[in-house]
Amino acid sequence: MKELQKEGFHPVIVDDLSEGHRKAVSVDSFHQISLADREALQEMFRKEPVDAVVHFAAHCYVGESMEDPLKYYRNNAANALNLLEASVEAGVRRFVFSSTCATYGDPVRLPLREDHPQKPVNVYGDTKLVVEGMLRALDRSHGFRSVILRYFNASGADPEGMIGEDHDPETHLIPLVLQVALGQREKIKIFGDDYDTPDGTCVRDYIHVVDLARAHVLALRHLADGGGSDAFNVGTGKGFSVSEVIEASRRVTGHPIPAEVDPRRPGDPAELVADSSRIQKTLGWEPRFTDAEEIIRTAWNWHRNHPDGYSD
Ligand code: UDP
Q1: CA geometry: angle 141, 144, 147, nearest 5 deg
Q2: Which fold has domain 2-305?
Q3: What is the pTM of this model?
């Protein structure tokens, strides 16, 4: 939202606030609507002159998606279908979709390129891939152009300190580690240390939210300039293991951050690292935050100043 506003766009925000926070958005046009409510969506499109849709809303916990798969199909796939139908009906023909590296599944080649086989190993990835399929079909049938952004591990916080993560329950590694540093949790659990990686813990490509946000602005420009549908990885190309993230967090916070090894979490591939040369070449995007400590520092700044998230 902030990046769009800086670039002269006029964002209209639609959110059911089931997981988001009203305080995180400062826009003139806000609609508290669930994507399950097709009529409310149609009405919103009647009221607002929308040129393009950026679809972020989804459940995004790998572990939960394995335990409650239909919750994920309902929200991530069926509700996305509602949004696509309403967009097509309203004459919108440009769409940016938040997809995920989880659509690739267990890598057969690293770093992951966009043409890597997409065989998710968790339900979260399955549901995102379903929407990628809808978008490809709509391009053929309706000339509906879309940019699919396959996020790697979104992390960090607004460097200006206004926006940060506040999930309940929190399941993501960096905020959990920082909650230990704040004394809100006793220790961090490392989900498996027997993976085929240099230190045995899972390796992920942590991409700062500001770099991710800039990818959306460039994707919208690409579509506005007549660019065709495409899919891009959004990652730095650098992987950090769970142990490296904990170590970097110890350096940033000065807290010992006790850790213990727990069993593997179902649905976790050993390593996910992006080859993001396609978005660099096509859209001119480049990551600015490539260092784990630098990313964690922005998150630490948010968590330290908002220990109770948006309720502070
Ligand atoms: N992880 C961990 N302990 C936790 C939370 C996460 O070891 O308490 C690991 C998880 O297994 C994965 C990595 O940290 O390998 C990143 O997980 P996260 O949930 O942050 O993001 P995801 O990779 O699921 O998108």
Answers
A1: 130
A2: Rossmann fold (3.40.50)
A3: 0.97
Q: Which residues line ligand 1 (CB under 6 A)?
A: 62, 153, 171-173, 176, 188-191, 202, 204, 242, 265, 268
Query: Among the atoms of ligand 1, which is closest to the Cα of residue 153?
Result: 25
Task: Give the residue among 282, 159, 182, 193 at the shortest CA–CA distance from 231.
Answer: 282
* Average pLDDT, integer, range 277-299: 98
Average pLDDT over residues 45-66: 95
Nearest residue (by CA) to ligand 1, atom 21, is 172
Q: How far apart are CA 17 and CA 21, in angstroms?
A: 6
What CA–CA distance (Å, rounded) separates 312 from 309?
Answer: 6
Q: Where are the chain's structural domains?
A: 2-305
DSSP 235-259: S-S--EEHHHHHHHHHHHH-----E
Whether 72 is catalytic: no
Q: Give the tens place of pLDDT for each residue, 61-99.
A: 998 999 999 999 999 999 999 999 999 999 999 999 999
Query: Rounded to the nearest whole angstrom, what is the distance from the C-alpha of residue 127 to the centroid of ligand 1?
Result: 19
Q: What is the pLDDT of residue 26?
A: 86
Task: Name the one residue in this structure whose structure tokens are 């309940």.
Answer: 168
